[in-house]
Amino acid sequence: MGNLKNVVLPLLLAFSLLHLPFAESVWFFNYHIHVRNDLPSRNSSPHQPNLLLHCKSKNKDIGDRPMTTGQDYTWDTKINFFRTTLFFCNARWVGHKSRIFDAFKAVRDEDRCSAYHSSCMWSVRADGIYFSYNNATWFNEYPW
């Protein structure tokens, strides 16, 4: 009887966790993070990068991405079981400003990013870093 408890109870617990409201997104949904460079291009050379973007999480370093105006950088992630998934970025506007921002934070973005193709969209602009949940309405969440 003791062995049966050791087998059945963990199975029941695992089965019940699968039916929690957030379980589907934790294990099955991919979230797409987009960061677009909408800064004004450099007068001297419009084809030279004017934004250096470095994004990473606790477990994954995406590295430096030099970006020219109009470029979009995208990556995917899933939310971990504890909903602590976090990607943060350092956006450096060459010759101007620098700002660290949370590009994906599970507890904040799980719902708001699922509204539009499971995408979190960011736009780096002259007055700050904007977020959109639908690619139409933009909010300046991180002013320079």
Give the termini distance in whole angstroms: 64 Å
- Using only CA atoms, what is the Rg? 20 Å
| Strand arrangement in the largest pleated sheet | 4-1-7-8-9
Arithmetic mean pLDDT: 86
Helix/strand/pairing category: alpha+beta
- Structural shape: elongated
- Binned, the helix content reads 10-25%
Which spans have pLDDT < 50 for at least 5 consecutive residues?
21-26
Strand residue content: 35-45%
User: Major β-sheet, in short?
Assistant: 5 strands, mixed
Number of helices: 3
Q: Give a count of the beta strands, DSSP E runs of length 2 or more.
A: 9
- Helix/strand order: HHEEEEEEHEEE
Task: Provide a descriptive summary of the structure in words.
With 144 residues, this protein is an alpha+beta fold. Strand 8 (128-132) and strand 9 form a beta hairpin. Helix content is 20%, strand content 42%. It is elongated and about 75 Å long. Residues 21-26 have low confidence and may be disordered. It has three helices and nine strands, in the order H-H-E-E-E-E-E-E-H-E-E-E. The chain has helices spanning 2-18, 23-27, 106-112, and strands spanning 31-37, 51-56, 61-67, 72-77, 86-93, 97-105, 119-125, 128-132, 139-143. The termini are far apart. Strands 4-1-7-8-9 form a five-stranded mixed sheet. It has a four-stranded antiparallel sheet with strand order 3-2-5-6. Keywords: Secreted, Self-incompatibility, Signal. Residues 1-25 form the signal peptide. It comes from Hibiscus sabdariffa.
